[in-house]
Amino acid sequence: MTLPKATELPIGAVVTEPGSTRRYSTAGWRTLKPVIHDDKCVRCQLCWLYCPEGTIAEVRGVFKVGGRTYDVKYEIIYDHCKGCGICANECPTKAIEMVPEAP
Amino acid sequence: MQIQKTRKIEALTSNYAVAYAVKAADVDVIAVYPITPQTTIVEKLSEFVANGELNAELIHVESEHSALSAVVGASAAGARVFTATSSQGLELAHEVLHIASGMRLPIVMAVPTRAVSAPISIHNDYGDVMNARDVGWVIYIAASAQEVYDTVIQAYRLAERALLPVIVAYDGFLMSHTVEPVELNDEEEVRKFLPRTPRPYTLNPRRPVTMGPLTSPDWYYEFKYQQVLALQEAYKIAKDVDAEYSRAFGRGYGVVESYRMEDADYAIVTYGGAAYGNAKAAADLARERGIAAGVVRIRLYRPFPTADVLKAISGVKALAVLDRAIMFGGPAEGPLYRDLAAAMYMSGVDKPAVNVIHGIGQRTMYVEDLYKIYTMLREGPRKEVVFMGVRI
User: ipTM value of the model?
Assistant: First the structure.
């Protein structure tokens, strides 16, 4: 792949395309990955709120868990999650488990 | 129709000259933090803002690191900005110097120079600004209050054309607190000289961009090379701006100033007001005593005006570089000497050049001292460092 020359790049390393970071996978340095146990999740939204990288997705749908029906569930976007564990720490029902990445 | 230009002359210190120039430039955001000998610049500016003479946002910050950071943010948002500092303040802001130049922000900062601690000295030398000489900023060193005023206005035009931050330095106390007559321009004319041209990128919610991002090894070097090119181009831009300013306001300086150099055998090459003024007096004295002496002053220090300096010294038999800063541990302790030695070497010029260090912590540089430099040069070719005025 040929990268652009110095004179072809925007002055001062300005990134001109909003949201382009989505194409850059930053999960490479994760050692522990969060796994959501959906049966324990009460949909309080705290993980979504606390995640510093916005890597928790709120998925719409009909989800029957035990005797309850929810209209959302939460999923980790593993391409961008760095494994900091804040979500697991904040989860009031301990529904998020930090699992070692496969070596 | 010919517009009658009214000459308005005020008695101003170099610090007040900066404040008047910043007012004339219609600056939008000023970040202020006090440090001697800079403080009276921002005192005067806060007076202008309080009196409604300058419509600017004046931000009181908690340190020089914050002052420069505040103008980085404001400049990124597209504002015309100003700040000023000296000595320890410039050292504290050092990290942000690289950020401002790397982000290519047209910030203008005044630096009345002052010795750096320890031991503490509030007095003048160029030890502070010389620590900032290789950080990607354009650096002017002015030699009179008039030139300080004119240079601040030129600095905005250069900064906004080259997309580079600019330091306007001059002698702390010896100039910052010394009153001289200064001819002020008509402010409307200054605003015409400094049109608000849109920059390629600013922080704007309607056209979102990211500034100062993380770059991986595949990208960082290219942006540093962009800065190399920008500084090289700024040499020509600085000359153009000075010529344009001269046409608009009748005063110009060039990037290098020469005094009695036409037939000079021996030259002192230096920078700043006190050294230049005293060296000119020493050259006059030397000529009265039969030595063909001259002086060359570096006005644009970064980018280094290699071609103009070499042209200015082309006729001399020997020269002395008078440095007012000590850069410890190098092949020579004077920063300008190192620059000029490298410039001469790279251009195949081999002239005897002595490095005289003087004026450290505002040690008085007597005209007689500088006269001795000419006799030293006449005595024989030398390439060494002489610490003048120190008790050894």
Answer: 0.87
